[in-house]
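User: Fold this; tokens only.

Assistant: Input:
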Amino acid sequence: MNRRQLLLGAASAAVFGGVARTASAEKMIMPWDYVNMKDKITNTDGTPLQFMPKKPADPDPLSDELKKYAICPYCGMSRTKFSHTRHLIHYEDDLVDGTCSIHCASISLAINMDRGPKAIYVGDAGSDEKIKPLISVEKAFYAIDPSKMGTMSGSRKYAYADKAKAQAAGGSIVGFDDALKAAYGDMATNTILIRKRRAEKRRKAIK
């Protein structure tokens, strides 16, 4: 059994038999494995694919956040590793999307037009803590620097609770709305690059 078959088997075991279990950081199930098995998933209740394996509504997503939402559902990356750029979207129906970056957060917001966000949080890149704490995007200062690589993007978009630290990081200092616009503006270029990288990863995974 190759690695791909093993992952699909694990995904099937997680989805069938009631409420699906979440993938762990140690044995993560990549997003393309969800896509490949989408016709076999029956307990979605209309839940968009990014919420699979299905998680229950969560009125308190900040408690044990990185344990409950360990992996970005769009790219499969560890949100702990990328705690400095991670985002957490708490929708009005209490479904929660934990992403690695504003790039992946912008995807969630784009495909959930009728699911309004109750709150959105981002990692404070200026914090001295190893795991960056979450702050409300309404209070964040985003430093956008196209000359530096970002998470899932060729243009860095880091958020800071302290405006002085954001300014010291360089680039343009904007609020969340403008950072989101920049993420959408970069989407075409980033998607082309990411798809090429993912295609290569998939080829290696099935060998």
